[in-house]
């Protein structure tokens, strides 16, 4: 049986393995603790990949289903949080592929039609940045998340998404340009 030892925020590698093992054995308290420990961080990842809160909540649920389905595979190599992040990133990619929206080539002239919400008033506020990320077209948002926030190389992104490395590079460039335009427009509205 899993015995919680104080705060779960800074678990030692041995404690992470013990928590994962308890979850693997179906111990509800351990599963609840794992969920409580990582739900906020993983929801942040979900918000970055999805274009609205409801889809992010669905992704959070699906991600934790996958975590608990595969928790017995956690070997203790690397952190438990890193392992969970990887599962959430792959789950997000799978959901985006399933919706058949991912990586449609978007011409820059099409992006000029973007309407910036008046809510986007402070590009330095993390919540405002997430709102801006959610406004990005799916392909742009996905590449930007994987490259900048998940620290994947263009080679890794290309392999994971089944695209050419050059497509990953061009989508990243376009995503950055698009995000800059949105930030400039939002600052002009202030």
Automatic annotation (TrEMBL):
Q: Which SUPFAM superfamilies match?
A: Sigma2 domain of RNA polymerase sigma factors, Sigma3 and sigma4 domains of RNA polymerase sigma factors
One Pfam family, please name it: Sigma70_r4_2
Record-annotated membrane-spanning stretches? none
Identify the InterPro entries for this entry.
RNA_pol_sigma-70-like, RNA_pol_sigma-70_dom, RNA_pol_sigma70_r2, RNA_pol_sigma70_r4_t2, RNA_pol_sigma_r2, RNA_pol_sigma_r3/r4-like, WH-like_DNA-bd_sf
Gene Ontology MF annotations:
DNA binding; sigma factor activity
Domain RNA polymerase sigma factor 70 region 4 type positions: 128-178
Q: Which residues form the RNA polymerase sigma-70 region domain?
A: 34-101
Question: Which GO biological process categories is it annotated with?
Answer: DNA-templated transcription initiation
Q: Which UniProt keywords apply?
A: Sigma factor, Transcription, Transcription regulation
The domain of life for this entry's organism is Bacteria
* Entry's family note: Belongs to the sigma-70 factor family. ECF subfamily.
- Any idea what this protein is called? Sigma-70 family RNA polymerase sigma factor
Q: Which organism is it from?
A: Candidatus Defluviibacterium haderslevense
């Amino acid at each position: 049986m899993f015995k919680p030892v104080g705060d779960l925020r800074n678990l030692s590698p041995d404690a992470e393995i013990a928590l994962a093992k308890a979850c693997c054995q179906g111990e509800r308290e351990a599963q609840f603790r794992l969920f409580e420990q990582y739900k906020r961080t993983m929801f942040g990842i979900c918000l970055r990949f999805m274009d609205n809160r409801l889809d992010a909540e669905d992704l959070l649920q699906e991600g934790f289903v996958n975590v608990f389905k595969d928790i017995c595979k956690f070997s203790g190599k690397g952190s438990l949080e890193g392992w969970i992040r990887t599962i959430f990133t792959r789950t997000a990619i799978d959901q985006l592929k399933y919706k058949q929206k991912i990586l449609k080539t978007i011409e820059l002239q099409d992006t000029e039609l973007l309407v910036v919400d008046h809510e986007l008033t402070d590009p330095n506020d993390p919540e405002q940045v997430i709102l801006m990320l959610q406004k990005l077209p799916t392909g742009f948002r996905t590449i930007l998340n994987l490259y900048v926030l998940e620290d994947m190389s263009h080679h890794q992104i290309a392999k994971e998404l089944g695209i050419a490395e050059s497509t990953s590079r061009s989508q990243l460039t376009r995503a950055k340009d698009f995000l800059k335009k949105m930030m400039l427009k939002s600052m002009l509205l202030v």
